[in-house]
Amino acid sequence: MNALIISAVWGVLMMFSGILLKRHFLIRNLAVIGLVVLLVSDLLEMSGTVFFKMDVKGMILFDRFALFFDAIIFAATLIYFFLSAKDMEKIGVNYAEYFALIFFILCGITLVASFQSLLILFLGVEIISIPLYILTGSEKKNLKSNEASLKYLLLGAFSTAIMLMGIALIYGAVGSFMSQQITIAKTPYSALLIAGMILLLFSMAFKASIVPFHFWAPDVYDGAPTVFASFMATIVKAASFIAFIRLFNDSFGGMKPEWQMWMAVLTAATLFIGNITAVFQQSVKRMLAYSSVAQAGFMMFSLYAMNSDATEGLLLYIAAYSLATLGIFAVLNKMNDHTFDGFNGFAKSQPLVAAATAICLLSLAGIPLTGGFLSKFYMLRAAVNTGKDIWLVVFAVIMAAVSVYYYFRLIQAMYFREGNSHTVQFTQPFKWTMVAVAACVILLGIFPNLLLYWLYF
Amino acid sequence: MIPVLFILIPLISGLALFFFKNEKTAKSFALFSSLITLAVAVSGLTFLNDNKFLQYSHGWLSFLGSSFAVKVDGMGQILCLLTAISYPAIFISTWKNEYHKAGNFFGLMMLEQAGLMGVFVAMDALLFYFFWELALVPIYFLSSMWGGEKRVRATFRFFIYTFLGSVLMLVAIIYLFSQTKDHSFSIESFYSLGKVIPGKTQSWLFWMMFLAFAIKMPVFPFHTWQPDLYEQSNTPTTMVLSAVIVKMGVFACFRWLLPVVSIASFQWGDVVTSLAVIGILYASLIAIRQDDLKRFVAYSSIAHIGLMCATIFSETEIGFQGVMIQMFNHGINILGLWIVVEMIEGQTGTRKISELGGLAQKAPSLALFAVIVGLANLALPLTNAFIGEFMMFNGIFSSDSTRYHIVFTALAAISIILVSVYILNMIRKVFYGDDNQITREAKDIKWNSKLVLSVIVIIIIWLGIYPDSMLNLTRSLSESILKSSDVIHLLSGK
């Protein structure tokens, strides 16, 4: 509850700061302070200190899982601010408003992480989506940014309508919006309930960019300003997955046989399309967009398996994936040339940043001793423990081997090719933040219990 | 403590080496650190040869069922010793070579050593997988950054190949883990599964694991990465690859394949042996026609490793012992061959056999060493490889686990003739006959190569005369592997 209220209030505060504060670095620092306050208040709530007590009629539940997820998200956003907040200046004049919108998104994320009623889910998803439409189109003079925004808005509205329809059907079948009412529905399930569940599955798959509902993602990430694309590909994507897993665990947990095969098919399709298409990309930004689809395929395993391994693993996955992707995006953001060739000779001119980027890429590819490996390991183990569909696991690791191709292409460009990317300049704090990100990625790979410990104690 | 030192010494010195700017100091530091590792390895064989020092265990990832359990057993002792000997030998014999960014080069070399040592001492499946993959990353950078023109492509192919194999092995490991009673990755829990899991399940587990090992060895038809990579990498990297890294596959078959999926290993033994025998003949025939010295050694290595692979699946004690000692012998012999190749290339600037000739007059001591190493490679009696190959053929011939043991032995034994053909042919063409434009200016080798080659020759002859010094190390281990993987009685009892 702390984070929900504070993020909403701080969002409004950031809006007014645009009028009151003229200096950009003051606005930036205010946003950073806001995030630290959010993070601290969330951690305090985990240890039992709640500032705001409200009667929410059981529609929101701030359990340990939700709070812990929020903490990961706030920490990731904090790192995102350190790496990329300065680059938002380049996009347009409304510097303070960008931060305000991000705080509103965070408010929506706290809602979807802890909903117990489908209404709150809907509210949360909309609170996340609407600021995102604006952020995508924030580069007003860029035609691609406008196109992406329009595309995102239309498709997003469409998927929202499907979600509403699903919720309505479920209400018709069960007579309630509450998760615990839906989960006790009796077999045989009514056609209404099944249809509603499938509509919800589709709309959530859209939000999490699962194949075949992924078409918007690469275009929107490509068109949106790079700083915001990195936010959407990591933090917002993580939020969609949490909503997804919450929905299917809390509401439809009892109907697992009905949807497990759907999940298996979606997982396989996502892994296949995401990885194969990423191989053919020439622009690093589009490669990262497809890589985010491919990684979503791995995260889908947590939905497919839906056991304690899976939920733990998903949190680890989100942390490792977000860190690595934020790091690479931040570097990409500073480059003049967004193709693979733009990175030629990068290691020679910027050995420190190149090494950190390489570690992030190794983590995404799933090389041991990085967080990416252990999170993939968790997902595979969760799937194997279900005891069936080993073919899916085998397929996933073959696709992981495919993913090595495009991640290592960037490493090859940085390390083994001659080029002139030395024109890029990095500030000292940026360099050290990148090193810290790489260190965190490795730390997660060696001692994941440092993170997962908080889930239980 | 010793296995931990094996990993820590190269790891720490490797990380430190990245900050060395001066080539000379980096070189000296790397040599110094590798000599310390060698000293540790030797002490582990002699006065610290006690279980108290040879094993170590510490909690790590315990909530996943894994732990940092390492132990140097007989096979580990042999392979760690091989790794520890190779590194100083490589550094000394290539002392004159110059590298750009020498600090990074030697740093990566030492990290590679840490990964290899880890593979050889890991007693926990997840830990084994960790090191197995980690040994891949430094070699990727080593081969991609230093070497011939097409190195990036060749290395990338190698990387994708081996990575695909490894991730399939990971699935098999996770599945085996889910079947263990105590949900643990420890080697004891895995060994207890060998006769429990039904044969059908074991079959696909077997292929998923064997694929990873077969690519690493490499066994026909998974060998295509090897000649290109050997040709394109620079010689120190190739030495590590061929002397130590290919042994990972053979080693892993012993430690993680036969005892863990015993039924499938028995069932598929004939198929694998056939592939290996095809590989032996195929690679030997190609080696005869090779003109490039590096590719020549690569194909000769495929043939030798193929014989080891065939012997593993014969499942006899004498065969196992033969492979154990041959892993060491092959490492030493091929190291010698590479040093000779490196010296020839350094002197003449070419690796083409057809362009060389008459080197024996210009470089008599190089020729002498080359002949001894060459004879060891074709398994002449009184050299180390004779012992190994004799035991291996004996093992295949006396195998109970296949009906075709006579056919396999007869076909594999053809390679003895083929090896003599290509080795002696190479020596004749390169060292004897008339000198020509290219070889006229050649000079004899320097003291550093002489030193390393003398040590190699001493080992070759020592093990040729007194192989028991090495065979005693692994005798009990071979027996226990055989016992835990022997399923003939189990199957015939049914």
Which terms summarize this structure?
heterodimer; A: 457 residues; mainly alpha; 19 helices; B: 494 residues; 2 strands; 2% strand; globular
Tell me about this structure.
The complex is a heterodimer of chains A (457) and B (494). By secondary structure, chain A is mainly alpha-helical. Chain A has a domain at 258-457. Chain A has helices at 2-20, 24-46, 64-84, 95-113, 118-136, 143-174, 179-183, 191-207, 216-223, 226-251, 256-279, 284-305, 308-334, 346-349, 351-365, 371-385, 390-416, 428-446, 449-456. In chain A, α11 packs parallel to α17 (390-416). The longest helix of chain A is centred in the middle third of the chain and has 32 residues, at 143-174. The relative contact order of chain A is 0.09. Chain B is mostly helical. Helix content of chain B is 74%, strand content 2%. Chain B has a two-stranded antiparallel ribbon with strand order 1-2. The mean pLDDT of chain B is 87.
Reconstruct the topology from this structure.
The complex is a heterodimer of chains A (457) and B (494).
Chain A (H helix, E strand, L loop, with lengths): L1 H19 L3 H23 L17 H21 L10 H19 L4 H19 L6 H32 L4 H5 L7 H17 L8 H8 L2 H26 L4 H24 L4 H22 L2 H27 L11 H4 L1 H15 L5 H15 L4 H27 L11 H19 L2 H8 L1
Helix pairs in contact in A: 1-2, 1-4, 2-3, 2-4, 3-4, 3-10, 3-13, 4-5, 4-10, 5-6, 5-10, 6-8, 6-9, 8-10, 9-10, 9-12, 10-12, 10-13, 11-12, 11-17, 12-13, 12-16, 12-17, 13-15, 13-16, 13-18, 15-17, 15-18, 16-18
Chain B lengths: L1 H16 L5 H23 L5 H4 E5 L7 E5 L2 H20 L8 H20 L3 H10 L1 H10 L5 H29 L7 H5 L7 H18 L8 H8 L2 H23 L4 H6 L1 H21 L3 H20 L4 H32 L10 H4 L1 H14 L6 H14 L7 H27 L15 H19 L2 H18 L2 H6 L1
Helix pairs in contact in B: 1-2, 1-5, 2-4, 2-5, 4-5, 4-12, 4-16, 4-21, 4-22, 5-6, 5-7, 5-12, 6-8, 7-8, 8-10, 8-11, 10-12, 11-15, 12-15, 12-16, 14-15, 14-20, 15-16, 15-19, 15-20, 16-18, 16-19, 16-21, 16-22, 18-20, 18-21, 19-20, 19-21
